Amino acid sequence: MKKNPTIKAIPNKRLLSILVGIAFLLLLPLTAMQFTDEVQWTFVDFITATVLLLCFGLALELILQKVKTTRSRLVAVAVVFATLFLVWAELAVGIFGTPFSGS
Known about the structure:
It contains three helices and no strands. The protein is an all-alpha fold. The longest helix is centred in the middle third of the chain and has 24 residues, at 43-66. The termini are far apart.
């Protein structure tokens, strides 16, 4: 079978940097757990944080790929950031009192 020379597998560097960023962010609580008893994450906490950050990162990547105007990008990114922080706050302290708050 003859290969088409115009088709190249170009890795998405931005996606790779998102994944590396997520790994780095997850290393922070893991490292803190080694030095203090103030941080007590379980395996489920790490999985939850991974899923949340991965969804956030992939949403940002999708926005940057699909949305063309700068103003629309800023609005979409602001909505994604606000959603991330609201979900994170709900999971951490239960600001809305949903069953997901852990209490």
